[in-house]
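Protocol step 4 of 5: obtain the predicted structure for the target chain.
Materials: sequence only (see below). No template structures provided, no constraints applied. The aim of this step is simply to have a reference model before the mutagenesis design in step 5. Sequence pasted as it appears in the construct record:
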Amino acid sequence: MPEDEIQRYADQHTTPEPPLLAQLNRETHVQLLHARMLSGHAQGRLLSMISHMIRPRRVLELGTFTGYAALCLAEGLAPDGELHTIEFNLELEDRIRRYIAAAGLAKRLHLHMGPVAEVLPNLAGPWDLVFIDADKINNDTYYELVLPQVSAGGFLLIDNVLWGGKVLAAHQLKASDKDTLAVRTFNDKVQADSRVENVFLPLRDGLLLVRKL
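Step 4 output (structure tokens):
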């Protein structure tokens, strides 16, 4: 059966997006380049489900884009929970803040603008759930920065770990393809990391679910 038919069937049997997220999804695809960076329906519902299962008090997201994933992750926050998200593209700030406000999360969802490497040292853990979805070449750097701040038994999610299928051995890696090399190396590192246990989910562009031991 063709992969797109399988995905269509899966989408038809997944809880629909809330109206605000459906609006943000459409708006992102109509108005912005690289709209594929948005988590979208299936992955968004998975992020929401994981957050509901964990009921985190403190969530950290690296790479906000238009805010879709952040809103999904915020759905499962504990009653006194908060989410911090970092985005470097200043042109996206007004849009992100508009949707945070529309979701009624202005007091619980905190947007920090700037490069992750500059903002992250100013945010203190512990974190119950971390979503890493920023520049892929720095996955390992961000992982090492946040892992010590993740609560024992806490979770990390890393997006785009399939990297369009380029992580597979069949892909002929070019010397200039530093992102692919970084993603491959990172995936192998997590697989061998005795500090965590992990499950690789081939959803969309790949989602790595990691639990700190």
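Step 4 remarks: The longest helix spans residues 40-54. The chain has a mean pLDDT of 96.
Proceed to step 5.
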